[in-house]
């Protein structure tokens, strides 16, 4: 399950940011194949090289 979360974060970081010289906020929303959900946001610096904030919530069943 942890691998799926990391894959979603990796996918979200591949999206080009729309604003230069400002923090970039990515919205995360997904459904696991086991029926659980993942929602939240993470924030990067303007160069998208460092995560500066993370707020994720999962309702996935099982353990990570």
Structure description:
- This protein has about 60 residues and is of the alpha+beta class.
- The protein contains one helix and three strands.
- The longest helix has 12 residues, at about 1-15.
- It is elongated and about 40 Å long.
- The model has no long low-confidence stretch (mean pLDDT about 75).
| Low-pLDDT windows of residues | none
Using DSSP, what is the number of strands? 3
Could you tell me how far the N terminus lies from the C terminus, measured between alpha carbons in angstroms? Answer: 5 Å
Tally of separate helices: 1
Q: How many structurally independent domains?
A: 1
| Mean pLDDT across all amino acids | 77
CA radius of gyration is 13 Å
Helix and strand sequence: HEEE
Strand order of the largest sheet: 1-2-3
Structure described in brief:
This protein is α+β, with helices and mostly antiparallel strands and 64 residues long. It has one helix at 2-13, and strands at 24-31, 37-44, 51-58. The protein has 1 helix and 3 strands, in the order αβββ.
């Amino acid at each position: 399950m942890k691998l799926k979360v990391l894959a979603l974060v990796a996918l979200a970081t591949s999206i080009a940011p729309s604003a230069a010289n400002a923090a970039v906020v990515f919205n995360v929303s997904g459904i696991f194949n086991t029926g659980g959900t993942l929602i939240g946001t993470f924030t990067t610096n303007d160069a998208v090289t460092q995560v500066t904030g993370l707020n994720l919530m999962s309702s996935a069943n099982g353990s990570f």
